[in-house]
Amino acid sequence: MSTSVADPVALRAWCDEGRLWLGMEDGRVLGIPLGFFPRLMHASFTDRNKLEMSGGGRSLHWDHLDEDLGVAGLMAGRRDNTKLGREHHASCPICRASIGVL
Length: 102
What we know:
There is one protein chain. It contains five helices and six strands; from the N terminus they run βββααβββααα. A hairpin with a 3-residue loop joins strand 1 (10-15) and strand 2. The model has no long low-confidence stretch (mean pLDDT 86). The chain is of the alpha+beta class. The protein is globular. The chain has helices at 38-41, 45-48, 71-75, 83-91, 93-98, and strands at residues 10-15, 19-24, 29-33, 52-54, 59-62, 67-70. It has a three-stranded antiparallel beta sheet with strand order 1-2-3.
């Protein structure tokens, strides 16, 4: 089964020190910089990997971090757009460089 752009499904999700990784149903592997999500970036390695997948692989949830991410949004390149996220993206040199603001 292929992964639809409109309804992507992750079979596996994990974090390392710099990225959130998704193993997709169609075999692709997507790596998202943790800087896109300040709660994940500032969490410990152990806490980042205490994630739950739900919706048949369509969403990710970190109860203890109060973070919920949709796989479709991750694939579309969406970042944290909460006040915390916007403030972080404006001040973080890594995030600013990744969107071409120096």
